[in-house]
Every structure is written in C-alpha cells, then in structure tokens.
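I have been asked to look over a protein record a colleague put together. Alongside the sequence sits a line of tokens, each denoting a local backbone shape. I have pasted the whole thing underneath without changing anything:
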Amino acid sequence: MKILKWLSISDRFIKKYLDQKLAQFGINSSQYMYLLKVCKYPGILQDSFLESFYVHPSNIVRMITTLEKKEFLTRVPYENDKRTWRLYPTQKALDIADKIYEICNEAETLLTAKLSPDEQNSLSNTLYIVGKQIANELNIERKEDEFDE
C-alpha cells in the first residue's frame, strides 16, 4: 500500500501548492488544465475534454461554466451539434497562460528535483501506464487524446 499512500500524498500536496500559486489569477488546481487547453487550442470542442481529463461530463460543464463566469473563456455553439460548444480563450486567459505554464513547470521541477532525466521519463511513462490500467479496470474507455501534451 506504499504506492497508494504516496500517490495520495503527492496528489494532495501538489494541489495545495498549485492552489497557492494560482490563486493570484483567480483559478485553482482543478481549473488550470482547462484554461491552458483552451488557450493552446482555440475553438476546441468541449467534448474533447472527456478524452483529456477522464472526468464526468458534469465536471467538465461545471469547470467551463466557472471559467466563463470568471471571463477566461467564451463558448460558441458548435455548428454541427448544438449540444456541444466551441471554446475560445479571452484576452484575460491569454495574458496569464504563460505564467500558468511557468507555475506548472516549477511544480514538476519541485516534484522531480531529485530524479535523473531518465528517472523523470520513467516516472512519467509509469504514471501513464498505471493511470490507463485503472481506467480500463473501471471500464472508462477513452480514445487517445489528439490534444494530449
């Protein structure tokens, strides 16, 4: 149970770290990924987040609604399916995106500071594999994300 323990501890503390660093922008550790994805892919379909973040559609709607209310993005109905939206960043979002990337890079550096580049790569690959494994076990099937970073 050592792996579960340290995954939980790492998750909890990295979220706390990100929440502290991102508070200056009015966002938190649950919202930054959505904001960055919209900034990187203006016009991205809201449904694309299903493949990216492995969360329930209601969570996506909640995050998008929150970011829209905070004026970080705008929604435009998708011409081919009025049940979904195209998402565009506002200037407010674009103005802070690079700073958020810096904070994320700092967080990853903090997490992996004592690891060699090979160990960092191995950790990344291992987390990907175990994440996919538990998703498969729970029958959470997603196609490979074309927007994965």
Observations:
- The domain at 2-99 is CATH 1.10.10.10 (Arc Repressor Mutant, subunit A).
- The mean pLDDT is 91.
- The CA atoms of residues 43 and 146 lie 14 Å apart.
- The chain is about 60% helix and 10% strand.
